[in-house]
């Protein structure tokens, strides 16, 4: 006995019905391929857009954090300037007083009233500086 292969070839009958079925199968396969391609393109575009949105969001967060830090620094600087302004306003009010001006002139420029003797006493910081310089 001759051995036959386990696969037997079957010849397809080329009728109009069979050709129509084959065409439908090819169309379905082509539709699946097109659908897969469209989904792949849509997925790639979506990923690019999503990545762009995330990147923009992160950049805006960084800019916001930088601006908040700068705002905090400027707020601290504003408080300092306002404190200096208050001191200067108080000093301006004092400068309207003639007695304060006379006292300031005597202190800064060593001016004196009649029968007044001025003694210049060095401050403690000056003595410390002189001692440090002498040791070197």
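^ Assign residues to that structure.
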């Amino acid at each position: 006995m001759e051995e036959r292969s386990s696969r037997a070839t079957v010849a397809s009958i080329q009728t109009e019905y069979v050709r129509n079925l084959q065409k439908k199968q090819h169309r379905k396969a082509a539709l699946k391929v097109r659908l897969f391609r469209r989904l792949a393109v849509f997925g790639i575009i979506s990923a690019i857009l999503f990545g762009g949105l995330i990147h923009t969001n992160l950049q805006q967060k960084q800019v916001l954090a930088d601006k908040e830090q700068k705002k905090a620094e400027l707020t601290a600087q504003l408080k300092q300037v306002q404190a200096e302004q208050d001191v200067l306003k108080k000093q301006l009010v004092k400068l309207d007083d003639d007695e304060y001006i006379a006292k300031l002139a005597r202190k800064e420029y060593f001016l004196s009233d009649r029968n007044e003797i001025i003694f210049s006493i060095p401050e403690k910081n000056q003595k410390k500086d002189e001692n440090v310089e002498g040791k070197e």
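Residues 121 and 127 are 11 Å apart (CA to CA).
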